[in-house]
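Researcher: Here's the sequence for the chain we discussed earlier.
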Amino acid sequence: MVKNTKTTLHNCKYLFFRNFLLLSAWLPLRALHLLAKTWGSILFVFPNRAKSTTEKNLRACFPNLSEIEVAELTKSSLIHTASTAMEMGKSWLLPMDETLAMVVDIEGQDKFDAAYQSGNGIILLAPHLGNWEVFGFYLADSAVSTWLYQPPKSLAIDRLITETRSRGGISMAPTNRAGVTQVFKALRKGEVVGILPDQVPSKEGGVYASFFGVSAFTMTLVSKLLQKSDARVFCGFAKRLPRSCGYKVIVEEASSEIYSNDIGVSVEALNKSVEKNVEKAIAQYQWEYKRFKKQPDGKKFY
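Model: Thanks. This is the structure I predict for it:
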């Protein structure tokens, strides 16, 4: 009985998610952003977890901001995070040429392409900034790519994610031992490996490093992959442009210290690379994520 109830619940979630994607794929980008502005504004008015987490993150990372500036940035961040959710249908369900057509400007692709042609492989860092789905699809369009992802509990949603993301030729690797092996093999073949570098890793997969001056438990996977390969590291995002006119893809080389054999130095450089990108569009970062939920002293941040 319990199993049937869980199955029904998962099926309902899948149908809701699928229909939401279909609707958001059909609506114009301007309409989606108008809905996101309404959604984000409502979240800003009423007490909720997303708002409180955003405020705590912003106060910790930008202690010099006034309360008015924190409030303005909180509201803007909530709206941009809502925009990312509303854009998912266009990222996942549109024909690939229509998804890529939303990119109207590009910065740094020449260096990325040159590094890919070297055949040593590329680790592409895609933080939760702007539209990371569009960013990944755009750069994967000209390169053989494998992306790490966290499989959801629902098998139906997992199939949907892998099918939609794979339509551009991207191979999906789960965040487990088999997935890491798949990623390492891809690098050895000179391919691109996509990683979201600002997710809180498992206890065995991270160390503490500064992120905007706050101690953050940060993945060591990138550093360990570099110790076993000659891959180059790039970091970037798809910046949401004003008036719903599309995105600007920005990709740049990571901090040179990321190649250090000292794990601590390398991980600090990873966070510095993410910071540099976030500073280009602070409001478009997903400050709603509990980035600092693990602290070295064991105290609760949230």
